[in-house]
Design brief:
The complex is a heterodimer.
Chain A lengths: L1 E3 L5 E3 L4 E6 L2 H17 L2 E7 L19 H9 L2 E5 H8 L3 H17 L4 E6 L9 H20 L2 E8 L5 H10 L3 E4 L2 E6 L2 E8 L4 H16 L7 E11 L1 H13 L6 E4 L3 H10 L5 E4 L7
Parallel strand pairs in A: 3-7, 3-8, 4-5, 4-6, 6-7, 10-11, 11-12, 12-13
Antiparallel strand pairs in A: 1-2, 8-9, 9-10
Chain B lengths: L1 E2 L9 E7 L2 H17 L4 E4 L2 H11 L6 E2 L9 H11 L5 E6 L7 H14 L5 E8 L4 H9 L3 E4 L2 E4 L16 E8 L5 H14 L4 H20 L11 E7 L3 E9 L13 H6 L4 E7 L2 E9 L6
Parallel strand pairs in B: 2-6, 2-7, 3-4, 3-5, 5-6
Antiparallel strand pairs in B: 1-8, 7-8, 9-10, 10-11, 11-13, 12-13
The chains are: A alpha/beta, B alpha/beta.
Organism (chain A): Actinomycetospora endophytica
InterPro entries (chain A): MlaB-like_STAS, STAS_dom_sf
Protein name (chain A): STAS domain-containing protein
Chain lengths: 293, 302
């Protein structure tokens, strides 16, 4: 599976719960439409949740309008693609996370009953403030619901973060909760073989989300039962600027006492920037890139 | 040139000293301190309590060394300069200043060090500035960049990494290899690609290409961050690069924001730019603010 980042770049994704970050609504639509087309072509039934007009979405059914694809329009007519806007979803779910999870489970059950071999869900940026711990916990529970469904059923989920619609704190929380699989303009990250594979170019335009995702990856490792070390496969990092290196340095200082960060396979250029900025004792480099057995 | 004594010198000796531990600190400077005290000169140490204790123990009771509280000197450069003048009495005195005791940002420290070189060059005093190997990389870069000489293994040597404040990076000489306009950080992804392509074609080796790309990126960020804050599209920034047989020069410039005075101190980020090139300097002229980056070829072109 691949995700278009909206700037013409395709990123190969093996994961089932991803976050697509876009700067603007037009960028978001390019990426989302390409993902939906791919799911439809793979034979999946797609459940798409869009922003209503009064949330800054000019047409909740843009996907099957002129901005969408003929494939999506055909799938909408045949029932392979279902679109609901957030107002309708909130109404059906009773405005609760539990209600939302029940709605999603019902959609999965219905899709399977209809005989679809695969299912896919995506939802546009929801403009949740995520300003306090209780709301962040609710959001985390909602996201965990997708993972739970994916463990039981052949479900792929694409969450969307459109920066034009979200506050900086919300973008931080959303990126942190999706550290497992994030596609953000010129960089991406995903877990594979026990390592956090980071690819692309990390600079000032993405450093906030990179820091958030790095924080999320550290937290995920901390909950590991055996070794809490965060192993970053950096062989795919093509550029790292000073601000991004500082994020890595600060993550090293902020990591829990028993936690370490090991950076695997970094290019000399990446290593040099980190070394120049400052490498905390908890952060080390190794040339080794293969996964130990 | 190397030396172990400044007895014959009648001007400022501004020496950098990088040490790795408290005991290493004292061991490295002890012979210099003893030599000055032995000649009847004044020694003032502006150091942390740990280093003060180690020095005092090493010199023994009754030593004439003076420990000057950093708080008496750190409020302004002029207080520190006055202290240097006080110590600069015959016979030649020594001030031992430890970076870590001064709670000032890198930009101000760099400016103060440059001012010492410029304004106090005639002063018959020795100033040893000590920086720990565990200091931030930018502070270590300052220690290496502002001192004409370094104290290494008890011996003072000429410092090849010294970059005088008046070593202005000249732009416009050589063959133009790039001229671009960009409108802010979002364009830097593309700018980096162009810079990489032209400096590779200009013959820099891979490591120098990587470092130059980082230096230009960070310099461009400094300039973009100083753009006037106006509604609408931001003012364009301009990037020009030139190549000679010995170096590659980049100049990034943009209109200066009215809120930023021409006399305002150099931005902190310049210290980071300097980590990745031979020299970098900011300039401010006729309402234009800019940064120039110079990368020297490791092997000059024949």
């Amino acid at each position: 599976m691949s995700i278009s980042t909206g700037n013409g770049r395709l990123v190969e994704r093996p994961e089932v719960h991803s976050l697509l970050v876009s700067e603007t609504t037009p960028d978001q639509r390019v990426g989302a439409a390409a993902w939906v087309d791919e799911q439809l072509a793979a034979g999946a039934k797609v459940f798409y949740k869009s922003r209503p007009c009064d949330w800054g979405g000019d047409d909740p059914r843009w996907l099957v309008g002129p901005a969408g694809s003929s494939c999506a329009r055909w799938a909408f007519r045949t029932g392979q693609l279902e679109i609901r806007d957030f107002a309708e979803v909130i109404d059906l779910a009773g405005g609760t996370t539990r209600g939302l999870r029940e709605l999603q489970a019902a959609e999965v059950a219905r899709g399977l009953d209809e005989g679809w071999p695969r299912l896919a869900m995506s939802q546009e940026s929801a403009s949740r403030p995520l300003a306090d711990d209780a709301e962040i916990a609710e959001y985390a529970e909602q996201e965990a619901g997708y993972d739970e469904l994916a463990r039981r059923w052949p479900l792929t989920t694409l969450c969307q973060l459109t920066l034009a619609h979200e506050s900086s704190p919300a973008a931080w929380e959303i990126a942190g909760l999706h550290s497992g699989d994030i596609v953000d303009h010129q960089w991406s990250a995903a877990w594979s073989d026990g390592r956090w594979h980071v690819r692309g170019e990390l600079d000032v335009t993405v450093v906030g989300r990179f820091s958030a995702a790095l924080d999320g990856a550290l937290r995920q490792c901390l909950h590991s039962e055996d070794d809490p070390t965060l192993r970053i496969d950096a062989s795919g990092i093509e550029f790292l600027d000073v601000g991004s290196a500082q994020s890595l340095m600060l993550a090293g200082y902020a990591a829990a006492r028993r936690q370490r960060i090991v950076v695997h396979g970094a290019r000399d250029s990446v290593r040099n920037v980190v070394t120049a900025v400052g490498r905390p004792p908890s952060l080390s480099f190794t040339a080794e890139t293969s996964v130990p057995r | 040139m190397t030396t172990t004594s400044w007895a014959g010198s009648s001007s400022l000796e501004h020496v950098g000293y990088v040490y790795d531990s408290t005991t290493g600190f004292a061991r490295g400077v002890l012979s210099q301190v003893r030599a000055v005290l032995g000649a009847g000169g004044q020694v003032s140490a502006v150091v942390d309590p740990g280093e003060a204790e180690t020095l005092q123990d090493a010199l023994g009771p009754g030593s004439a060394i003076t420990f000057t509280p950093p708080a008496e000197l750190e409020d302004s450069n002029s207080l520190f300069f006055d202290h240097l003048r006080d110590v600069a009495r015959a016979p030649r005195g020594l001030v031992l200043a430890q970076y870590s005791v001064f709670g000032i940002p890198d930009g101000r420290l760099r400016r103060g060090e440059d001012d010492i070189n410029r304004q106090l060059a005639h002063l018959p005093v020795t100033l040893i500035c000590a920086c720990s190997t565990t200091a931030a990389s930018t502070r270590l870069a300052t220690a290496h960049g502002v001192h004409p000489r370094l104290l290494v293994d008890g011996i003072v040597r000429d410092n090849a990494a010294y970059r005088p404040a008046d070593a202005v990076v000249q732009a416009g000489s050589g063959t133009p290899i790039l001229g671009l306009t960009f409108r802010g950080p979002a364009d830097l992804h593309h700018i980096r690609g162009h810079v990489r392509a032209v400096v590779s074609a200009a013959g820099l080796d891979d490591a120098a290409v990587d470092a130059h790309v980082v230096a230009v990126h960070e310099a461009a960020l400094i300039v973009a961050n100083r753009l006037p804050d106006r509604p609408g599209a931001p003012e364009p920034c301009e990037l020009d690069m030139w190549a000679t047989d010995t170096a590659i020069t980049a100049e990034i410039r943009a209109p200066r924001s009215a809120e930023i005075a021409a006399s305002s101190p150099p931005p902190e980020g310049l210290e980071y730019v300097r980590l990745f090139c031979w020299h970098a300097a900011s300039f401010d002229a006729a309402g234009t603010y800019g940064v120039r980056v110079l990368t020297r070829r490791s092997h000059p072109r024949p």
